[in-house]
Amino acid sequence: MTFAANTINVQSSRLPFGAQYDGRFKGKHILSVSQFDVHDLAYIFDVAEEFRMLVRRIGVMDLLKGYILANLFYEPSTRTSSSFIAAMQRLGGTVIPINEVRYSSVSKGESLPDTVRTLECYADVIVLRHPEVGSAALAAQYARKPIINAGDGIGEHPTQALLDLFTILQERGRIDGLTVTMLGDLKYGRTVHSLAKLLALFRVRLIYVSPKALEMPAELVDALRARGVCQESHTQLEEVLPETDVLYVTRIQQERFADQQEYEQLKDVYSITPQVLRAAKPDLTLMHPLPRLSEISMAVDSDPRAAYFRQMEYGLYVRMALLALVLGKA
Ligand code: NCD
Q: Does the pLDDT at position 241 exceed 90?
């Protein structure tokens, strides 16, 4: 190990060592961050770092030449969908893109298990985004080929959390000892659900800032507390911004609200502006999975602390690593 072994303190793991990596991910589904320990992360990030350098040096490889990815998206996506396509193409593979399920047999009422069993006849790996929690796990029950969860409703978004962690490592050089503040819609935001679970493998302080109605789910907070993770909840960012090392901002998830009036009341509750950032550390890392609405002003984009555009680029390398690993080619 090169990159990640230097930056992830594997001794800080709350999980026992025991990983053997040759082919460890081959043929495996990626459904939840709960399936990873720190040794897995170090390995994935080493591979991602290698791809980062290879993309810079040679652009396109032929590692996955002859392999096909089915990109099956039942919900809108820009970054996740296109970065998986780019990842597969950079590795020399090809893609069946199904971004508009309404033009597929899904619109005729085909079930998810049948759609998945169809696509795996033609593809070697399936990336799935679906509005229902547990959909990726359901698809995996029926699939012989690897399923990669690209977001299952308000459940998890494991590949986003992996790229978020890779971003923190790239930007900060370490995870242990950081104070990470998650801001916005912590109830419906699947990215923060996965990221909090992943950060729980390290010695971090997690601060949640949200309106009362959009707090981090109690089961998740309880599960992390039981593992000894240091967590606190606030409603005002000012209370914690000066102590924050990584500020992870999220969009209020309009599509998840049953009551649109409630959304209207909450949608502009936080807004990061240059003025707000005056109270932040000079070396703050400001992240957002994107898309952003009003929660981060565009005037912030030129601030060197704004890492969200770099974050989406890191996603390409992490997704290249995941594809190569599950196909046994890393
Ligand atoms: C996120 C998602 O889909 O959960 N976007 C992404 O994958 N980068 C965040 C969001 O939609 O707010």
A: yes
Looking at the structure, tell me whether residues 238 and 192 fall in a common domain. Answer: yes
Whether residue 131 has its Cβ less than 6 Å from ligand 1 = no
Q: Is the CB of 319 under 6 A from ligand 1?
A: no
The number of angstroms, rounded, from the C-alpha of 197 to the middle of its chain's C-alpha atoms is 11
Are 87 and 152 within one domain? yes
Say how far apart CA 213 and CA 165 lie, in whole Å.
27
Test site for ligand 1: of 133, 214, 290, 295, most ligand atoms within 8 A of the Cβ: 290
For residues 112 and 202, membership in a common domain is answered with no
Task: Note whether residue 81 is domain-resident.
Answer: yes
Q: Report the chain's mean pLDDT, rounded to a whole number.
A: 94
Produce one character per residue of 200-227: b if its CB has 16 or more CB atoms within 10 Å, e if not: bbbbbbbbbbbbeebbbeeebbeebeee
CA 18 to ligand 1 center in whole angstroms: 33
What pLDDT digit, counting tens, does each position of 131-177 carry?
Answer: 999 999 999 999 999 999 999 999 999 999 999 999 999 999 999 99
The DSSP bridge partners found for residue 230 are: 205
**What pLDDT is stored for residue 105 in this prediction?**
83
Q: Is 191 in the pocket of ligand 1 (CB under 6 A)?
A: yes
pTM of the full structure: 0.94
Range of the domain at 286: 158-311
**Domain-embedded: residue 115:** yes
